[in-house]
Design a protein that fits this description.
301 residues; 82% helix; globular
């Protein structure tokens, strides 16, 4: 499949199974959004606004305002920890479920909410491992970049600053290229049952030579998701602009609901796109099933 065919397949599978994808995402993002809203509700917005003008404040005032702004009471800390723990468990599960449902629908197989969640429970830990592994690699690269930048600036001064800027641009380009190579690691973990490191290696192998195709799919999906988010943001802004709609409580509730709705509707799209990319890349590299059986299924809308 080319770019337009992949996007067409994503659209068809998504809308034909819209309520299933929404139900899967809602199970995770409704409680997660509620917990996140509770965390944000504990913030002191007036103190945060004052911190934005910290240039006119003394160091003692800044210290006091930081404590007031984030309001780190035992209850709020407990809610924050619950939110983090829920995210570590539930978000990988949701990603695995969407991946499984998308793969089953692509292969024109029957699936269900229950079957997909059974598979997801088995794969959530490897999925979490993939995410943590990518984060650790990225942090390591940033640390090396920071150390090299400091050395260049101290050793070469103005020339070093110019080299640091060029190095930062190169790092961004290389980072994007690396991301394109591991973008199908999640489908590999869920559908092939391998571990985190093997999934990254497998994704790296499958995506080799197809960077522009992957970039195009991700770009289109990002634009579509951004447009939808902008539409929801505009609706929320109109509601808050109405008489009585701009109160602090109303603003927090509306923004929380908009955020939850956007995550529920948009999050399955990117995961589904990764599934379609996985099958497309695998079909290019491995046009037949490893045991010599029939060719892999071809998407038919």
């Amino acid at each position: 499949m080319n770019l337009s065919e992949i996007i067409d397949a994503v659209v068809h599978i998504y809308f034909r199974n819209f309520w299933l994808f929404v139900a899967v995402a809602a199970v995770v993002y409704v409680p997660y959004g509620a917990l996140s809203a509770l965390v944000q509700a504990g913030e002191n917005t007036k103190a945060i606004d004052r911190l934005q003008h910290h240039a006119t404040l003394t160091s003692y005032q800044v210290h006091v305002l930081i404590g007031q702004a984030f309001n780190l009471t035992p209850l709020r800390i407990a809610v924050l920890l619950a939110t983090v723990l829920f995210a570590l468990v539930a978000l990988p599960v949701e990603l695995a479920v969407v991946t499984k449902v998308g793969a089953d629908r692509y292969e024109q197989q029957q699936t269900s909410f229950r079957i997909a969640f059974q598979r997801a429970r088995q794969r959530w830990l490897p999925l979490l491992g993939v995410s943590l592994l990518i984060v650790l690699i990225a942090l390591g690269a940033l640390l090396v970049l920071a150390l090299v930048s400091v050395v260049l600036v101290l050793a070469l001064r103005d020339v070093g600053i110019l080299l640091v800027v060029l190095l930062a641009i190169a790092a961004v380009v290389l980072g994007v290229m690396a991301y394109l190579r591991v973008v199908v690691a999640v489908p590999v973990v869920v559908l092939e049952g391998v571990g985190p490191w093997s999934a990254l290696n497998r994704s790296w192998h499958l995506s080799r030579g197809h960077g522009w195709l992957i970039f195009g799919v991700i770009l289109v999906i990002t634009i579509v998701s951004g447009i939808f988010g902008a539409v929801l943001g505009g609706v929320a802004g109109a509601m808050l602009a109405s008489p009585g709609g701009a109160t602090s409580v109303a603003a927090r509730v509306v923004l929380a609901l908009v955020s939850i709705l956007a995550q529920i509707v948009v999050s399955p799209i990117s995961a589904l796109a990764a599934v379609l990319l996985y099958f497309n890349l695998r079909g290019r590299r491995e046009p037949a099933i490893p045991d010599g059986g029939s060719p892999r299924p071809v998407w038919q809308p």
